[in-house]
Amino acid sequence: MIEGWRWYGDYDRITLSEIAQAGARSIVTALHQIPYGEVWPQTTIAATRNRIESAGFEWTVVESLPIHERIKRGDGDLSALFANYRQSMANLAAEGLKVICYNFMPLLDWTRTDLTAPVARGGTCLRFSAARMAAFELFMIKRPGAERDYTEQNIREAKAWYEIATPADLETLITAIMSGLPGAFERYDVEGLQEALCPYQGLGRNDLRANYKRFLEEIIPTAEELGLRFGVHPDDPPRDILGLPRIVSNAEDIGWILDAVDSPSNGLTLCSGSLGANPANDVPAIAEQFADKIHFTHLRNVSKDPDGSFEEAAHLSGDTNMPALISVLLGEENRRRQEGRADCDIVFRPDHGHELLQDAEIGTHPGYPLAGRMRGLAELRGVIAGLNFGVSAA
């Protein structure tokens, strides 16, 4: 497996030289400065690749080539947006890129309610509180029908928290919820989010699936021609958010996506944390089921609460059996080698580490600290080495 590291380019407080000291071999990044829907110029892609290679890395995975919200909504004439997307794909392929990670989550990317939840032995982590999300939806943005998405316990705790919350508490909550948007994007305030949700009114699960299928039909044939592999990232969290449907949350969803356009280029970014936040998901079993379509992996762990809340755990101490999952991935790599496939090595990256030691002082992107991810990478590297030793010893 190839050790990767997500890097935000000029927006990142962590330098390439620091990543080199952490031990990663490849960089996972994107042109975060370019607005959704615009073409990624080949010259800019080349400059980014040269910068990464000059620091001693390979740029192995694009994360992400974003999909414009109009495509997700199926809004109007989309021909120009699809043409721009295909041109960006062609420019990436011309610079040697092979794997593109993307998601089909409406409006928001990953969503958390707390960016600095305390960890038992020190440090902080990202957390999703069902009660605080309910407070946000019910009492801050006042979304009609939001009460149907939460349990009585969630609503009771949401009301109790909201009644004592200070203006600073409310501001901290919306900042956390907006922090999943990557790169140089405007974060919404309450009124802005209410306005941004309006174009999605009436968009149901079947509508979003239809729009997603059209995206795949427009893009995957070009990916095949260019030799690109697309890997969809699961929903994070794997549940409807803000009344918006999520359609990449479990094995049934993944199976539908891969069947919608049957192609080697239509695949999965296996995120163990996103899938692991759904109590019904057996992440190693999902990896086994779709192993031949896994083009990229995010390895992280979560600990779940009965009320629907969860938080980022250390990589080897959450609810997902990480050695079992990695064993599946190593087995798939061996199977690909036996078939003579060129894409036998799977890139992984440690994801959403705890903020540890001096991480809080650096001010990195939430969920992407230096020491916390370096710890995660070291733990994952140890598991991989141990499993590989077991195979060679046998």
Question: What are the key terms here?
Answer:
394 residues, 44% helix, alpha/beta, single chain, globular, eight-stranded parallel beta barrel, four-stranded antiparallel β-sheet, TIM Barrel
What does this structure look like?
The two termini are 20 Å apart. This protein is 44% helix and 14% strand. The mean pLDDT is 95. It is built from 15 helices and 12 strands. The chain has one domain (2-111, 199-393): TIM Barrel. The protein is globular, with a radius of gyration of 20 Å. The chain has 394 residues and is an alpha/beta fold. The strands form 2 sheets. The protein has an 8-stranded parallel barrel with strand order 1-2-3-4-7-8-9-12, surrounded by 4 helices. Strands 5-6-11-10 form a 4-stranded antiparallel beta sheet. The chain has helices at 16-22, 42-54, 69-73, 79-94, 130-140, 152-164, 167-178, 190-197, 205-226, 251-260, 272-276, 283-289, 322-339, 359-362, 370-393; strands spanning 2-6, 26-29, 58-63, 99-102, 114-118, 124-128, 229-232, 266-271, 294-299, 301-304, 310-313, 347-350.
Helix content: 40-55%
Name of the top-level CATH class: Alpha Beta
Number of helices: 15
Structural domain count = 1
- Rounded to an integer in angstroms, the radius of gyration calculated over CA atoms is 20 Å
Structural class: alpha/beta
Low-confidence stretches: none
Question: Which percent range describes the beta-strand content?
Answer: 5-15%
In what order do the strands lie side by side in the largest sheet?
1-2-3-4-7-8-9-12
Query: Which of globular, elongated, flat, extended, rod-shaped describes the shape?
Result: globular
* Order of secondary-structure elements: EHEHEHHEEEHHHHHEHEHHEEEHEHH
